[in-house]
Amino acid sequence: MKITKICCIGAGYVGGPTMAIIAQKCPHIQVTVVDLNENRIAAWNDKNVEKIPIYEPGLSDIVAEARGRNLFFSTDVDAAIDEAQLIFISVNTPTKTFGKGKGMAADLKYIELCARQIAKVAKDNKIVVEKSTLPVRTAEAIKSILDNTGNGVQFQILSNPEFLAEGTAVTDLLFPDRILIGGDTSVEGQDAIQSLVDVYANWVSEDKILTTNVWSSELSKLTANAFLAQRISSINAMSELCEKTGADVNEVARAIGMDSRIGPKFLKSSVGFGGSCFQKDILNLVYIAKSYGLNEVADYWEQVIIMNDHQKRRFSSKIVQTLYNTVADKKIAFLGWAFKKDTNDTRESAAIYVADDLINEQANIAVFDPKVEADKVLTDLNYLDTRTADKNKEKLTVVPSPYEACANAHAIAVLTEWDEFVTYDWIRIYNSMQKPAFVFDGRNVLNRAEMEKIGFVYQSVGS
Ligand code: UDX
Ligand code: UDX
Questions:
Q1: What is the number of the ligand 1 atom nearest to the C-alpha of 134?
Q2: Which of 96, 277, 280, 330 is catalytic?
Q3: Does the C-beta of 159 come closer than 6 Å to ligand 1?
Q4: Is residue 402 scored above 90 in pLDDT?
Q5: Whether the CB of 339 sits within 6 Å of ligand 1
Q6: Is the CB of 418 under 6 A from ligand 2?
């Protein structure tokens, strides 16, 4: 099938940037991104392109180039489905908060709603592409809904997981390590795969486009995230040992990373990984393994999450212990709230859990993050449901500058690795703080020797 019109359901962190790049690289294809959330669509359409709802370096320029030419954002889901030959499903798949698989399995409610809507609206054959990360064999469920409720038209289901990382979405999309497309082995399935290959081939060389069966593609995405997260939990496990024994985890990481079989990436010890994917995907993997009775496999992967939770809790305990076992009514400055640098996304950020622990110890927290909005910080904390929103507001404030966050603070906790942190006037910050002035570097971004020279008591993860 020759693709001239694409629709993407879900204008989030994945759908928005991915479609912007497809539109930029394929000016001959009309790309319409739809979402139920009217505010989100309005923000994507904001005249001031800096106000699009997702911050990613380089993204606003691409949106400015393609928007209105062949890139459109709309709430008219039916019209976009009707027109398109190819439909990406990029809606969220949160962890279930109820019933069977609660806290582990993916909630596929939104995926099912999308499938039903496509089935209702479609009047001609369509290719439906799973972009959202899904438990293995979701395509089967989508196909069953489409085939049994549709208007007798033919659907092909492809799995095309997205590997972009937030903060580097544009580069990851422009220069992907690989594009993975899973489809049916039938002739029709292979045709559908080829249609999508042709879209990507506009800017990705064909040797980087892998095609597999649907199940392999779905499982590869979960496996990739599980392996990446496992590396972080592995180095974080070593960080605790380093702190006890006097080794430096950065040196250990460097030494092992030079082994070409291990490689240097993703070995940065931290206060714990966050983000919307790692925890959710591993819990999913654990749930799937358990549902097949593979308890050892499930337990093996669950350790990655257990270690990560431990790392976050260990960080807050260390702050309390170091501050003479009490932080009650002490001011602690948080530098960073996003789950990593160069994004305004805070989902599962370690900062949320560290704040929660410290507020349990009655600390007062002042947060500064260069990109995260104040409301978001409190919403994240309220979502944990540990205490009332009023109480959270009393104990945590969001301030517009790092200097304000640190003034009169007993300690600083670095929760995100924003580049700008190293450029601050640290002497000014030191002079404005209570003494001794402590820095707990959860990201190993500041220079120990420089901080100690100024007079800070500096502790970092893993040394
Ligand atoms: C999501 C999933 O979390 C991830 O697993 C998957 O790989 C890609 O999609 P993300 O784009 O980061 O990731 O999610 P989010 O930013 O929440 O965007 C999803 C969008 O879908 C939201 O804007 C939501 O309003 C929209 N949506 C959801 C619909 O338009 N219709 C629905 O029925 C449900
Ligand atoms: C991840 C995967 O990298 C991506 O391929 C997939 O599509 C979605 O999930 P993302 O969550 O956006 O992407 O960010 P990533 O860069 O992987 O970082 C995840 C978390 O791990 C962050 O909190 C980050 O700070 C942390 N991290 C990463 C470390 O603590 N140490 C590291 O060495 C690397």
A1: 5
A2: 277
A3: no
A4: yes
A5: no
A6: no
Q: Tens digits of per-residue pLDDT, 152-210?
A: 899 999 999 999 999 999 999 999 999 999 999 999 999 999 999 999 999 999 999 99
Q: Which pLDDT belongs to residue 3?
A: 97
- Rounded mean pLDDT, 51-55: 92
Ligand 1 contacts CB of residue 91 (under 6 A): yes
- Indicate the burial class of 85 (C-beta count within 10 angstroms; 0-12, 13-18, 19 or more): middle
Q: Measured between alpha carbons, how far is 162 from 389 in angstroms, rounded to an integer?
A: 35
Provide the residue count of the chain: 463
Catalytic residue among 221, 268, 280, 340: 221
Beta strands per DSSP E along 149-297 = 155-159, 179-183, 209-213
Residue 457 has φ and ψ, to the nearest 5°, of: -90, 115
Q: Give, for 286, the enclosing helix (H) or strand (E).
A: helix 278-291
Query: Contact, 46 vs 69, CB < 8 A?
Result: no
Of the listed ligands, the closest to the CA of 278 is 2
| pLDDT digit string, tens, across residues 109-148 | 999 999 999 999 999 999 999 998 887 788 888 888 888 8
CA distance linking residue 270 with residue 416, whole number of Å: 9
Give the number of C-alpha atoms closer than 13 A to the C-alpha of residue 237, restricted to the C-beta side: 11
Catalytic residue at 221? yes
Q: Which residue from 111, 147, 138 is spatially nearest to 9, judged by alpha carbons?
A: 111
* 453 assigned to active site: no
